[in-house]
Amino acid sequence: MSENKTKDWFVYIIEADDGSYYTGISTDVERRFDEHNGKLCGAKYFNGRRPVAVVHKEAGFNRSSASRREAEIKKMNRQQKLTLIKA
């Protein structure tokens, strides 16, 4: 596997219609956003909520490092997430 192929994961934050934030990982953020808008393979988080927009995206991760970064972001409080989004 090439070095380029091991760094193709993204960490993303989506704003929901209730103003909350969802953090996830994917190799294709736009496809995953569309999936969250659907009913079949989106996150349970969006049951009763609708995704509005991808408000933050970080690139250059492999699967493992993307999962670690996702966990870091999920531990942040709302103000820390807003600061990250605005950066």
Summarize the structure in words.
The protein is built from three helices and three strands; from the N terminus they run ββαβαα. A hairpin with a 4-residue loop joins strand 1 (9-16) and strand 2 (21-26). The chain has a three-stranded antiparallel sheet with strand order 2-1-3, with helices on both faces. The chain has 87 residues and is α+β, with helices and mostly antiparallel strands. The radius of gyration is 13 Å and the shape is globular. It has one domain (4-86): GIY-YIG endonuclease, CATH 3.40.1440.10.
The H-and-E topology, N to C, reads as EEHEHH
Number of continuous helical runs: 3
Indicate the structural class. alpha+beta
CATH architecture: 3-Layer(aba) Sandwich
Strand element count = 3
Give the neighbour order of strands across the main sheet.
2-1-3
* CATH-derived topology: GIY-YIG endonuclease
Q: Which term fits the overall shape?
A: globular
Question: What is the CATH class name?
Answer: Alpha Beta
Helix content: 25-40%
Oligomer: single chain
How would you summarize what this structure contains?
The chain has 87 residues and is α+β, with helices and mostly antiparallel strands. The chain has helices spanning 29-37, 63-75, 78-86; strands spanning 9-16, 21-26, 51-61.
List the helices and strands and how they pair.
Blueprint: E1 9-16, E2 21-26, H1 29-37, E3 51-61, H2 63-75, H3 78-86
Antiparallel strand pairs: 1-2, 1-3
Can you tag this structure with a few keywords?
87 residues; alpha+beta; GIY-YIG endonuclease; 3 helices; globular
